[in-house]
Amino acid sequence: MFFVYPALDVRNGHVVRLQQGDYAQETRYAGLPLDVADRYADAGAAWLHLVDLDAARVGGYTLIPLLRALKAGTGLRIQTGGGVRNQGDVEAILAAGADRVVVGSLAVRSPGLVMGWLQRFGSERVTVALDARLSADGCWQLPTAGWTQDSGVQLEPLLRRYADAGLQHLLCTDIDRDGMLGGPNLDLYRHIRALAPGVKLQASGGLRDVADIAAAREAGCAGAILGKTLLDGRLALADALAEQRGC
């Protein structure tokens, strides 16, 4: 089944979007995060993708109160992350009502630990985010700490390890396309699907319209994360959800 995930990136209590992960290139949007999520729920969304940008660089997930309010007030299923650094963070986020915890930097730096969480919490409760940037020599590198640090780790060998460990949900952003509304990197997603055909892949970065959503699905993705295009009003969530249903 294919799902559309409207995204809320939260920084200092505000809904924001960054360009290519650059914290100096921030656009702040009107409306409190809970109000924006309410609109998405009213439009018929089933899922919300919630990111703690304050914690993404330094660790220590800070959105537990917001997560509880979202779960109590919207009825949305929520996958959320940003700053997840230890098992206590995972336990606290799940206890606050999250349906899936997104693990990014730690999934790159300490894959053995995160693979253990797939067993401990179940592969349906953990989404691994392997966000990638194409290097000058043509390799897909995996920056960490809010995409601000070079990990020295490449996508392909790490993805194979996770697939062998039973990973079910993978989120992959082409960092250079994030917030740019230039379309998704379909070649990257086809590459990932060939490497790990059993993993459910969520496309993120650059999606603009229903044609991009359809293209991501045709490339084998199981979901599409929509941020800037919804917040800017370029794409109506109702239209995106109609494409999700194959209408």
Automatic annotation (TrEMBL):
Keywords: Amino-acid biosynthesis, Cytoplasm, Histidine biosynthesis, Isomerase
Enzyme class per UniProt: isomerase
GO CC aspect terms: cytoplasm
Catalytic activity reported: 1-(5-phospho-beta-D-ribosyl)-5-[(5-phospho-beta-D-ribosylamino)methylideneamino]imidazole-4-carboxamide = 5-[(5-phospho-1-deoxy-D-ribulos-1-ylimino)methylamino]-1-(5-phospho-beta-D-ribosyl)imidazole-4-carboxamide
Pathway note: Amino-acid biosynthesis; L-histidine biosynthesis; L-histidine from 5-phospho-alpha-D-ribose 1-diphosphate: step 4/9
Pfam families reported in the protein's UniProt record: His_biosynth
Gene Ontology biological-process annotations: L-histidine biosynthetic process; L-tryptophan biosynthetic process
CDD domains in UniProt: HisA
InterPro entries found in the cross-reference section: Aldolase_TIM (IPR013785), His_biosynth (IPR006062), HisA/PriA (IPR023016), Isoase_HisA-like (IPR044524), RibuloseP-bd_barrel (IPR011060)
E.C. designation(s): 5.3.1.16
Active site: 9, 131
Keyword Cytoplasm: yes
UniProt-recorded Gene Ontology molecular function terms: 1-(5-phosphoribosyl)-5-[(5-phosphoribosylamino)methylideneamino]imidazole-4-carboxamide isomerase activity
Locations listed in the record: Cytoplasm
Keyword Ribonucleoprotein applies: no
Family: Belongs to the HisA/HisF family.
Annotated protein name in UniProt: 1-(5-phosphoribosyl)-5-[(5-phosphoribosylamino)methylideneamino] imidazole-4-carboxamide isomerase
Organism for this UniProt entry: Lysobacter concretionis Ko07 = DSM 16239
Organism placement in taxonomy: Bacteria, Pseudomonadati, Pseudomonadota, Gammaproteobacteria, Lysobacterales
Gene: hisA
